[in-house]
Design brief:
By secondary structure, the protein is an alpha/beta fold. Helices cover about 50% and strands about 15% of the residues. The chain has 3 domains: about 150 residues, Rossmann fold (3-Layer(aba) Sandwich), CATH 3.40.50; about 130 residues, Hect, E3 ligase catalytic domain fold, CATH 3.90.1750; about 150 residues. Bound molecules: zinc ion (ZN).
């Protein structure tokens, strides 16, 4: 029991849930649990709660969290004189920051701090309080360690087909009995099914979005805000074409688990990078499908680049790649005429608004057009290969040298950063042991932190550079493969053509402009 004699406490309850905790699958860290524990505590101790401050999804290694800042503000305004958290790691996992708060900031503002499950109360002369700084160090090490563990354990779980993301895909919920399993949310699944049906009926993303918005169908964002953030202020939401597209292309709906789409750079930096689709982790049949495979793949066929492709119809090499050079609309390839077994191209815009004459026919004998385009593409590929040979001889050596130097520097920086972090640990402990004075500590700490920031910046720049180069290289390598395949193939495939060509503009004067993926 807390003796609150002679003093009235206005309490700020601080709650933090981070990504780290998500993975621990520790139910005890959830917002609701932290909240009920804290409320229980204040009730038992007859304390008055001024406000509850909640940061959802913020890491403890960083103090830049919105509600944490609000808490500090209210302390400074004198509105609270007591802060309670479930345990110390809720405050932060960075020991210098946490230590500073407990040892300096709180005392300076006459704030009493309590970490319930750690048994820490800064106003009590308890032996537990002595371990506070060390607990802070532990928390920092825990954060470093856990970030490594998270990465590997997350991947292991993904490979087992276990759901490890936070926000479930629209149409699914986490299974109450197994957090890593998805179950269908019937209310949302109906909407998902409708979207697929509407697509099969031939409605564009935009039209689907418009219709759902007009009907006032709840958007994924609205559900998300309501269920995860406990606010549901928007009555009607706007559906967007992109949401529709994301839903129509999400393989999760046929029961397959697709994860590892993004990854984090390191544990102290928030930056998240998008992964290459080749690195996605896919496990089939992990949960109940909302959409049957047939429907799903039928829909994939209809999505723009493949628009107009139909199993029964003849498949043309250039299906979906032709655009009108004059009006920018798609050019379609009409079915073969029985009369002369020929097929012709036509500008869609012209065809739709024939009377208004908004464009011209753009009529070409398709087979002739295809020949011309394949011939030009062959020339472009040969040119590329020749140019590539010359360039790669000159540039490769330069690039290689650069790369080796960059990697060397990166290694040195990693060492330096580790060393500085170690030194910070040492001076902090020296300060605790009174080997150095507060002033000495502050001076050295400032110097080290500046150094750390400079090195970390340089590290980020180099790292980004290297990653970019790797991506560029692997892209070039793939293109070279495609080109070689293309040049050696007798029977051309549409799949290969799509990998090489972005789009082809056809002009009324019979000229064409081929936009390729390489140059
Ligand atoms: Zn046109």
């Amino acid at each position: 029991m807390i003796s609150s004699i002679n003093k009235i406490y206005n309490v700020g309850l601080y709650i933090r849930l981070s990504r780290e905790d998500d993975d621990k699958t520790l139910e005890s860290e959830s917002i609701t649990n932290q909240k009920s524990l804290l409320l229980q505590y204040v009730k038992e101790n007859n304390l008055r709660v001024y406000d509850i401050y909640t940061d959802d999804g913020y890491s403890g290694t960083n103090f830049d969290r919105p509600d944490f800042n609000r808490l500090l503000k209210d302390i400074e305004l004198g509105k609270i004189n007591m802060v309670i958290t479930k345990d110390m790691s809720r405050l932060g996992r960075d020991y210098i920051g946490t230590g500073n708060l407990i040892e300096k900031y709180f005392p300076k503002h006459n704030v009493r701090y309590i970490a319930v499950t750690d048994n820490i109360d800064t106003f009590l002369d308890s032996s537990n309080n002595d371990i506070a700084p060390f607990k802070a160090i532990m928390n920092d090490m825990y954060a470093k360690d856990i970030s490594k563990k998270i990465k590997s354990s997350l991947k292991a779980k993904m490979k087992e087909g276990k759901w490890v993301g936070g926000r479930t895909p629209f149409g699914y919920n986490q299974d109450k009995d197994d957090k890593n399993h998805l179950v269908i949310n019937e209310e949302q699944a109906i909407v998902v099914k409708r979207i697929f049906d509407m697509c099969l009926e031939g409605l564009s993303f935009f039209k689907i979005a418009k219709q759902l918005t007009n009907e006032g169908v709840k958007t994924p964002a609205q559900y998300y805000n309501f269920e995860w953030k406990n606010n549901y202020n928007l009555k009607y939401g706007q559906w967007h074409s992109k949401t529709i597209r994301d839903i129509l292309t999400n393989r999760m709906y046929i029961g397959d688990m697709i994860q590892n789409k993004r990854s984090k750079v390191n544990y102290k930096v928030k930056k998240v990078i998008r992964n290459d689709p080749n690195n996605y982790i896919v496990v089939e049949n992990t949960h109940k499908a909302i959409i049957d495979k047939e429907t799903f793949y039928e829909v994939q066929m209809r999505i723009p680049k493949n628009k107009g492709r139909n199993e029964k119809k003849e498949i043309h090499l250039l299906d979906g790649l032709l655009y009108c050079g004059n009006c920018g609309h798609r050019i379609s390839i009409q079915s073969r005429r029985k009369r002369d077994n020929r097929c012709y191209t036509i500008c869609n815009y012209y065809r739709t608004y024939m009377k208004q004459k908004l464009c011209t026919t753009h009529s070409n004998n398709y087979d002739e057009l295809e020949k011309v385009i394949v011939k030009s593409l062959t020339e472009m590929c040969l040119n590329y290969i020749n140019k590539d040979k010359i360039e790669s001889n000159v540039l490769n050596n330069l690039d290689e040298d650069n790369k080796v130097n960059n990697i060397k520097e990166l290694e040195m920086l990693t060492n330096d950063i580790r060393q500085i972090n170690d030194n910070l640990d040492v001076i902090y402990i020296d300060k605790l042991n009174k080997k150095i004075t507060e002033e000495q500590f502050e001076r050295v700490k400032l110097k080290l932190e500046n150094e750390l920031a400079t090195k970390q910046n340089r590290y980020d720049v180099l790292n980004d550079n290297i990653n970019e180069n790797v991506n560029e290289e692997s892209k070039n390598k793939m293109i070279r493969e495609y080109i070689k395949k293309f040049l050696s193939m007798k029977e051309l495939s549409r799949e290969l053509i799509i990998n090489l060509i972005d789009k082809i503009e056809v002009f009324e004067n019979k000229t064409v402009n081929i936009m390729v993926n390489f140059n």
